[in-house]
Design brief:
The complex is a heterodimer. Chain A is mainly β. Helix content of chain A is about 0%, strand content about 50%. Chain A contains no helices and eleven strands. The termini of chain A are far apart. Chain B is mostly beta strands. Chain B starts with a strand and ends with a strand. Chain B contains no helices and twelve strands. In chain B, strand 5 and strand 6 form a beta hairpin. The chains are: A mainly beta, B mainly beta. Chains A and B meet through strand 5, strand 9 and strand 10 of A and strand 5, strand 6 and strand 11 of B.
Chain lengths: ~110, ~110
Amino acid sequence: AAGVIQSPRHLIKEKRETATLKCYPIPRHDTVYWYQQGPGQDPQFLISFYEKMQSDKGSIPDRFSAQQFSDYHSELNMSSLELGDSALYFCASSTSQVRNIQYFGAGTRLSVL
Amino acid sequence: AQKITQTQPGMFVQEKEAVTLDCTYDTSDPSYGLFWYKQPSSGEMIFLIYQGSYDQQNATEGRYSLNFQKARKSANLVISASQLGDSAMYFCAMRPGGYQKVTFGIGTKLQVIP
């Protein structure tokens, strides 16, 4: 079965640079989520989109923005990168059914030097 | 506010034995979903099992079962017949009804011993 696809898998950036993370949800899933997992921590919710509209927002810094496109893929844009942004970034997708199980991609490991 | 508590930072289990990973939660929402995810050292987050707050029976998925005690607000994961490949971090998580974000616990690191 098709899974959530994230690219790139690894990304190395310098401080103050910009990064773009991409996410391709499972086919027919209408909701996309972004999470940030720091080293040794649990994932923290950043933002979600339902049918291309922002549906929920968590602790996402103002330097970050995200959107969902007409083909349902989503991008997380991160600007003015800081050392503390180094983390594993997950994208997840789900349908809007009652169970609403979120299936995660393999993650993008971002290192800011 | 929602909160997930996992009190076991690390657990060891002998191969082929069963193990229970503890999880308690706190929410004021009458409707919610409970999840367990597995995160191997490679980093991916793998969905294991789901329990809805109105489900009458405990969820089971192969060797995984969820011991759901609603009155105690606990949702323990039971892994039967442990395998070496079960060694990983396990996260308990909750999604309150009407919300989309999932709140995770801090995780339990399980190590299966040959």
